[in-house]
Amino acid sequence: MALSRCVTPILLCLLLVLTLGTAGSAQSVRPPEAPAEAGSQTLEDILARQNGEGAARSARDLSTAMPAPDGLPLGTRGAASDSDLWQALRFGTADVSVSAGGPTARVIMQDGGMWWLQARRTIADYGGWLLLGLIVFLALIRIIFGRIKIHGGRSGQTILRFTDLERFGHWLLASSFLLLAFTGLFSIFGRNGLIPFLGKDAYSTLAIGSKWIHNNVSWAFMAGLVIIFIFWVGHNLPARGDLKWLLRGGGLLTGNHVPAKKFNAGQKLVFWAVILLGASVSVSGLSLIFPFEMPLFAKTFASLNWTGLPQLMGLDTLPEQMSAQEEMQYAQLWHAIVGFLMMAIIIAHIYIGSVGMEGAFEAMGDGDVDLNWARDHHALWVEEVMARKADPPAPPANDPAAPDPAPQA
Amino acid sequence: MKIILLATVASFGIGLLAWALLGQSGFSSADVLASENVRLD
């Protein structure tokens, strides 16, 4: 119940959460819904439980101010028992006033936290297996197919692929993402994955440090995201040849490369995945850094309901009213889901940019790539660069049949 | 390679700056939910 109740609606809000992420600070708080398994004692509830059906509590038997039945002795709180009070607190029907914290603090017990806790564990399980499975898959690819070589070998001549500013933006994003990824994993796998090995004291120190890094380095991630978007969005717009590139898998395994400009279709997919998922994880992260200040999901779900998309997919209407605590739970779950997706994409990106392909790391390492590597993967871009230089290009050392781009160095 | 190091340092630098600007401002779930400020009537 927990997984289907939360994950499916969350998956639906991928696009809208990006645009609606800056929802206003005002928030409406309503009591969390009573769960179906509560143990109310009306005849209908008892019969429903006997039939294996959940019996939802309703306000009728949760009141803390029930009138005293005739002829019964009253306790210190009239006819209300401690059980009544705690049930009312649990299901949010108690009349609570607080001296600080606003309406959010009126929720003393958050019964909806149980499904969130279970969903969090489920997401962690699936996410962990996703990452491990991907690493094993890439290792198998590497073993079976080997490293993607430069066609014709290295030319000995290089061409400037990325400027210093471009590489700074990339590495600002990359270094901050790695810090966020590891600290995020430390957080989500702490109780079940790390405490058994490290012990609670050592993990406490790690968790505190992880939280500090995760919260504060996130700003560097957002800055890097903006920088690379500005630098590269123009090069990542769809273009002719992208579909052909995708259909051929880029020719990465066959060696039959498809000519591409500065970024091929595969890189464009990575770019837009990083931009969209990065924006989404940033917005949900902001919602978590500033608790209860940026409720996102009620408005997003309302917009999705308006589109009719959930109904088209056979789902119930998504909840449009939720407590501030539920908003936070959805934000955390969504943050984790997007985080795992990004980690998977970036693991593949790191693989192809390092051990998976000869000559690829140099593009982001010192900025210059071998001319033959550039011709293999970005032949149209090489032609553009050479045309701009307006110099008669010289042939690479060991590829005399190729066109003649002028080497930079 | 210097740029990789520079960008990594910048990540922490921005983090420190954010901490200095925001981290001391009381934004924390623990603060918001501080149970000692809650009183039942």
What report would you give on this structure?
With 409 residues, chain A is mainly α. Chain A has a domain at 113-389: Transmembrane di-heme cytochromes, Chain C (Fumarate Reductase Cytochrome B subunit, Up-down Bundle). Helices cover 56% and strands 1% of the residues of chain A. Chain A contains 16 helices and 2 strands. Chain A has helices spanning 2-12, 16-19, 43-50, 82-91, 113-145, 164-188, 190-198, 200-232, 242-247, 265-289, 297-307, 309-312, 324-352, 361-365, 371-377, 379-389, and strands at 158-160, 368-370. A two-stranded antiparallel sheet of chain A has the order 1-2. Chain A starts with a helix and ends in a 20-residue tail after the last helix. Helix content of chain B is 63%, strand content 0%. Chain B contains 2 helices and no strands. Chain B is rod-shaped and about 35 Å long. The model of chain B is unreliable at 29-41 (pLDDT under 50). At the A-B interface, helix 6 and helix 8 of A face helix 1 of B.
Question: Topology, pairings included?
Answer:
The complex is a heterodimer of chains A (409) and B (41).
Chain A: H1 2-12, H2 16-19, H3 43-50, H4 82-91, H5 113-145, E1 158-160, H6 164-188, H7 190-198, H8 200-232, H9 242-247, H10 265-289, H11 297-307, H12 309-312, H13 324-352, H14 361-365, E2 368-370, H15 371-377, H16 379-389
Antiparallel strand pairs in A: 1-2
Helix pairs in contact in A: 1-5, 5-13, 6-7, 6-8, 7-8, 8-10, 10-13, 15-16
Chain B: H1 2-23, H2 29-32
Biased composition (Pro residues) (chain A): 392-409
Organism (chain A): Oceanomicrobium pacificus
Keywords (chain A): Cell membrane, Electron transport, Heme, Iron, Membrane, Metal-binding, Signal, Transmembrane, Transmembrane helix, Transport
